[in-house]
Amino acid sequence: MKKVLFISVTNYNFEKEELVSHLEDKFKGLAQKIKPYVLAKGKPFHKRIWDTDFYLLKPGVLFWPLASILAFYLCLVKRIDVIIAQSPLIEGFIGTVLKKVLRKELIVEIHGDWKEGPFLSKRRRFEALQKKIVPSLAKISFKNADKIRAVAAYLIREAKRFAPENNYFLFPTFTNLDSFSREKDTSYQKFILSVGQLEKVKGMDVVIDAFNEISKEFPDFKLIIIGEGSQRKNLELRIKNLGLENKVELKGRLSLEQTKNTMRECYYFILPSLSEGLPRALMEAMVLGKPVIGSNVGGIPDLIKDGQNGFLFIAGDSNELGKKMRILLNNKELSLNMGQAGKELIKNNFSNKKYIENYIKMVNL
Burial level of 69, CB count in 10 A (0-12/13-18/19+)? Predict the structure, then answer.
C-alpha cells in the first residue's frame, strides 16, 4: 500500500461537524487502498483519525518554512512513496524539491485558476512581482510532475502549454452531495438564489445589477444571497442606492443545512463568478433539480450546457445575465426541464464513489 503525503493550505477544523462528516467519508475511502498523510494548516499539531495522519501547522508567515522542513522529515521517517501537491504554486515547488532530492513520485493538482485567481479575491503585497513569479512556479511544477490532476477541462488545457506530454487526470473534488441528492421536498418559491463569498471575484454586484433590471417586471420575486465577505458594506450600499432594500436580502454565512433548506425552495440559482474551478454550490443546486445560470468561466461550462440544463452568460455582463434571468422567469416549463436535465448530469457523472476510485487509480497507476 503506497504511502501518500498531501501538501496543502487547507485549514482543518475538526470541531466543525459538517467538515468532519465530509472529511471522514473522503479519507476513510482513500485509506482503503493508500496510506494518507496530510500536511496542512490547523490544530492540533498531530491527529490520527480515519486511518489518516494529519500534521497541522499554525497559519502565518512561518507556515511555509516550517511546512518545508516537516515535509522533508515526513518523507524520510514515514518512507513516503508519493507526494501530492494540491496546487502548482508553493505546494508544487516544495513537491518538486522533495522529488529531486529524495526521488519521490510527484502528483500536482489544479483546483482553480492558478494564474489570476490568487489576485482576484484580494490585494497582495508586491502583487506585480508575484504575478511574474506565479507562472514560473507553475511551470516548474508541471514540468517536474509525474502526473497532473485537474478538476476542470480548461485547467488541463492551460497546464498542457507547459507540459504537453504529461499524464493527465480529470475528475472533480470530493463533494459530498448525498444530503442534497436525497432531498425530496423541493419547491419553487418566488425568490432567486446566489451563494458565494462576498468578494469581488464572486461577482455578487453583477447579479444585483441584473436583478435590478428585471425586478419591476417581476415584482413578486426577491433575490437572496448567502455568504459573507469584505464586500458586504459595498453591496449593502449598492442595494440601497438602487432602492432594492425590500427586494434583495444578504443572508450572511449559513450552515450547510440552512443553505440546503434555502436552496431547495428557490426558483432558480445563479453563480456570477469572475473565476471558478468546479463550483460545489452549483452542483448542489443542480442535484436539487434547480435551473441554473452561471458565468462562462473556469469549470462552470463543464457543468452547465448552455440552453440544455441552464444558461451561461459573459462574466461581468449584467445585461446579458438579466436577459437569461428573464427567460427563466417567463417560462416555468423550460425551467423545470432544465432543472431535471441538470439533476441527471450530476447524478450520472459525480459521486463520492467515483472520486475514490479515480483517486486510487491515479495514485497506483
Answer: exposed
On whether both 62 and 143 belong to a single domain, the answer is yes
Q: What's the pTM? A: 0.83
Q: Do 146 and 290 have their domain in common?
A: no
- CA gap 279, 299 in Å, rounded: 7
Buried b (16+ CB within 10 A) or exposed e, 133-148: ebeebbbbbbebbebb
Structurally, the chain folds into a number of domains equal to: 2
> How far is Cα 59 from Cα 61, in angstroms, rounded to an integer?
7
Asked whether 271 and 303 are in contact (CB, 8 A), the reply is no
Domain containing 239 equals: 178-349
Q: Which residues, at least 6 apart from 255, have a Cβ–Cβ distance to it below 8 Å?
A: 18
Summarised one tens digit per residue, pLDDT across range 58-100 is 999 999 999 999 999 999 999 999 999 999 999 999 999 999 9
